[in-house]
Write a structure and sequence with these properties.
Elements: E1 10-11, H1 17-23, H2 33-40, H3 50-54, H4 61-69, H5 73-83, H6 87-93, H7 100-103, H8 105-110, H9 116-130, E2 144-148, H10 152-163, E3 167-172, H11 180-183, H12 194-203, E4 208-212, H13 222-228, E5 231-234, E6 240-241, E7 254-256, H14 257-266, E8 275-276, E9 278-282, H15 286-298, E10 302-306, H16 318-326, E11 330-332, E12 335-343, E13 346-357, E14 363-373, E15 376-379, E16 383-384, E17 399-400, E18 403-404, E19 417-419, H17 431-449
Parallel strand pairs: 2-3, 2-5, 3-4, 5-19, 7-15, 9-10, 9-15, 10-11
Antiparallel strand pairs: 1-8, 6-16, 12-13, 13-14, 17-18
């Protein structure tokens, strides 16, 4: 992943096309049949398996691995998708190293878990390649449900509702479905347009229409949806990016990491996307890792992630931190941005203040500073929920900690409105958690529509 020093500042085309292609190839190449059978044979098929308990969607992991071991790949895929309709994407992006694989008994015994994520991909990829639709719509209920947002939560909810026999209309602000799976995942984690192929599979069950360019609070309102439909599900995601709170954030070269990742994912030619020669990323989560690694793979010479606390407090997993470092990214801890440095309207660097944890655990400056030169600075310090679109007049949809309050069935404080994914209190910023929210909400909505609760 070498780069050219001939292009100063922010520039495109730092690497030849063949090197870009290699840098954005599949991060984890799929298992072939022999590899899958060998890996499946490592599973102990535990009773009350801790891996299943650790899975947010409660996939019966020993069951699908046993099905792979007996070469019944389609049954394995059905076991996975029955619990997680986005099992294919989750096999690629789910932090299995901190969920099912961390809980694997093999991990405890040998320090080497069964490769559950790759086995899950092996099964689901085979099903998608075959093109077989294993889900059927139930008898028509005569009920109509509006789903706002075609991200993981919304699509999972829509699919389960369709299988249960309800008509579903999805309202999506963008011109493509998929949410963060389409716009927010590092390109090397989901190659060959897999996000859209998975969406096509989900919609193929029937009974779901998707309306694009429909933003809640603009083209459509919550009040209208409540009038026109029997129930509403909100899978809004997080619409705002947190600002650094510093002067001069409008300097050229100070970028929103989420928007940059989206532009990279949609680019037909990744080599045409401009990237800095010296890049600084501020943040410690998955977005920070993804934008840093991809900047390096586009040809940035120096990429540094700076996080305000220690390594163990970073939201990005230890695996992802290691991936960044072996990709040539430096990670510096215990520092927060103090001042953006510019010249001629362009960013030229960032001054940081070293931090330390006080007796009460709160961050405080140590009094020392340092400066990193940069011609591109990415803001990756999290996103925020925008509740403005929830204006509904007299009735109130309650928030908790700045997000939508829901009960265990993902029902909001309005009887006919449910919500899930990142927009709800406790949202985990994980595709697998959003899928579970959508699934749980759909079951609750079904009970409501059938007057069962």
């Amino acid at each position: 992943m070498g780069s050219s020093a001939k292009a100063p500042g922010i520039a495109a085309g730092r690497l030849p096309a063949e090197e870009i292609a290699a840098n954005f190839a599949d991060l984890h190449p799929p298992l072939d049949q022999h590899q899958a059978l060998v890996e499946a044979d490592r599973c102990y098929f535990c009773h009350d398996a801790p891996c299943t308990t650790a899975c947010p969607t409660a996939i019966d992991i020993p069951m699908f691995i046993r099905q792979i071991a007996t070469e019944n790949t389609q049954a394995a895929a059905e076991t996975i998708l029955a619990q997680n309709i986005m099992g294919g994407m989750c096999a690629r992006v789910c932090p299995t190293e901190t969920l099912c694989e961390e809980a694997c008994v093999r991990m405890e015994a040998e320090g080497k878990p069964v490769k559950i994520g790759l086995l899950q991909r092996y099964a689901t990829d085979a099903l998608f390649a075959d093109g077989k639709q294993v889900f059927q719509r139930g008898p028509a209920s005569g009920k109509r449900v509006a789903v706002v947002g075609a991200g993981p939560a919304g699509l999972a909810c829509a699919h389960r509702l369709a299988v249960l026999g309800h008509e579903v209309a999805v309202f999506e602000a963008k011109d493509k479905p998929g949410g963060l799976n389409e716009y927010g995942i590092a390109a090397y984690k989901t190659v060959d347009d897999f996000a859209q192929r998975e969406v096509d599979y989900i919609l193929a069950v029937g009974g779901i229409t998707v309306n694009y360019g429909q933003r809640l609070g603009a083209e459509v309102t919550l009040a209208q949806l409540r009038d026109d439909f029997d129930a509403v599900f909100l899978g809004l995601g997080l619409g705002a990016v947190n600002a650094l709170g510093l002067a001069a954030e409008d300097l050229k070269g100070v970028e929103d990491a989420v928007a940059y990742i989206a532009a990279l994912r949609q680019a037909e030619d990744k080599g045409k996307l401009p990237v800095g020669r010296r890049v600084v990323v501020i943040g410690g989560g998955m977005t920070a890792i993804d934008v840093a690694v991809q900047s390096k793979r586009l040809g940035a010479e120096e990429v540094t992630i700076v996080y305000r606390r220690g390594k163990d407090q970073m939201k990005a997993s230890a695996y992802e931190q290691e991936l960044a470092q072996i990709s040539g990214v430096s990670i510096r801890h215990w520092a927060q941005p103090k001042r953006l440095l510019g010249e001629g309207g362009k960013v030229r660097g960032v001054e940081f203040a070293y931090t330390e944890a006080g007796a009460d655990g709160r961050l405080q400056p140590s009094g020392e500073t340092f400066t990193l030169a940069a011609d591109m600075v990415f803001k990756a310090i999290g996103q925020a929920f925008l509740p403005d679109s929830l204006e509904i007049g007299g009735e109130r949809l309650e928030l908790a900690k700045g997000r939508i309050r829901v009960d265990p069935g993902r029902r909001t404080t309005l009887d006919d409105v449910w919500a899930g994914g990142d927009c709800v209190e406790g949202g985990e910023d994980l595709t697998v958690a959003a899928v579970e929210d959508g699934k749980v909400a759909a079951e609750s909505i079904d009970r409501f529509l059938r007057k069962e609760g």
